[in-house]
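Following up on my earlier thread - several people asked me to post the actual chain instead of describing it. Fair enough. Here it is, all 364 residues.
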Amino acid sequence: MDFALSQDQKLMQASLAGTLDRACPLERVRAFAENREVVATDVWTALTDLGVPGLLIPEEHGGLGLAVLDAALVAETLGAHVAPTPFLGSAVLAPLAILAAGTAQQQSRWLPALAAGEILAGAAIAEGISGARDGAGVRAEAGRLTGKALFAFDAEQAGVILVADTDGGLWLVAGDAPGLALTPLTNIDLTRRLSELRFDATPADALAQGDIPPLLTRLRDVAWTLLAADMLGASEVMIAKAVAYAKERRQFGRVIGSFQAVKHLCAEMAAELEPCRALVWYAAYAQDAAPAEASLTAAHAKAHLSEVSRFVARTATEVHGGMGITDLLGLHYWFKRVGADRQWLGGPERVRHLAAVIQGLVAA
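Reply from S.P.:
Thanks for posting it. Predicted structure:
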């Protein structure tokens, strides 16, 4: 049995990496962050040409019809380039929800437009996954939503937003719906946008088919897996940058990579990260092929990568010395990327608690 990626998956990842090398170099990332852009349209257009928005959407709706493992490979590559894209909300969470629970009319209305990159989708499901805070929570009554949703992904220029209510229901809200107010949130990761959404009797379209609580669990598991993949990609690049710097930076007449202490730092980063690749890939594979293991493997991947990527980010910065924290070097974009991934939709402590609940080690 072959436990490696298929040739098509390797080619897809290589093609995506090449496209991002051209469309999203560090200078483009820096410009996006400094200018506080909402969407890097040029980067998203380049990804649209590769079919990324329709990755999980079936061919009959204009997509590629691929699996969550393929989406994880894309997320890993996006993390490696700290690419400013609305991938998680627009290409993953909203399409999965509409496919699983949408009516035929909802699917025909939204999926082809999402697959073609004609519209973007946001996702406001944090309260349903990681719990409410600061008075957040959305109530649904007679097809209208009222309340507040925090940490909405990719909502600022979205044509449609996926919203979870306090009872576990899921709704589709047009981006220009009356009674919807959006406020950008301060976020350490300037390559991606989070928002606070306020609803005041805002008309919404219920996702009428399917069993909604299990669907919200699936969205959580997929999101955790892809955030782990994003951390994996970012960590790989930070290690590569640290090793490259250690080979060229000279101190006391020698490159610093010749010093045993620096060798140990680089080796320890590599040793910690290498097992994570199989962990993330299997968690992504399980989302489609082993649903009984999906939640536990997703929790393991999210929690473990949260810790390993933080260690890699800190250690790679230490290898660079004082240069590691300068904007000129740009390492901080990857550092902040993994810091945001670590906390979004549940920090490692909360995720590990859920893993313990799933295994019957503690009470729910």
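The two ends are 37 Å apart (CA to CA). That should answer part of your original question.
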